[in-house]
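During the no-cost extension, the postdoctoral fellow (Dr. R.K.) reprocessed legacy sequence entries with the updated structure-token encoder. One reprocessed record is reproduced below for audit purposes.
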Amino acid sequence: MPGFGDPNARVLVVGLAPAAHGGNRTGRVFTGDGAGGSGDFLMAAMHAAGFANQPTSRHPGDGLQLLDAFIAAAVRCAPPDNKPTPEEFARCASHLSAEWDALPSVRVVVALGKLAYDACWKELAARGERLPRPKPVFGHGISLTLASGTSVVCAYHPSRQNTHTGKLTAPMLAAAFATAQRLARG
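Re-encoded structure tokens follow.
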């Protein structure tokens, strides 16, 4: 499933994969997984930071527009048990790369979860970025700016597993997008 958003985006948000009963069903990532689902949780944070015109993502015709942001997925199909295999990541890497190539203004990458962070790191390496070694450990709220000026912001994935257990709260995700906003303005 392709990503969506502003073609002039300075912020690229990378999630894991479309949810079986959300994006996979509706055709738009982070969309249609019900009130309180990951799409609404994500859009509320993006809306608060000025990256979305509304705080919900219910269906493709709901009027949602992303502003200065584009959302993509590291894997294009809903994987069994929400656990993509290394082969699925490898097969889908060219799609993430192509979407990134089509976004010439990207200055900030927001990685939603460790698996998305790992996929972004591989893509950054493939793009010839000078990456720090050892690779920084993923953690919510961590951000770093690379030698090229591209910044990476890490956030826990807004899955129900994370939001319903309190591992990720609305203020935590809002803070990550506020960081992305500040870095995008440079």
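The chain has a mean pLDDT of 87. Residues 4-185 form a domain with the Uracil-DNA Glycosylase, subunit E fold (CATH 3.40.470.10). The remaining legacy entries will be reprocessed before the final report is submitted.
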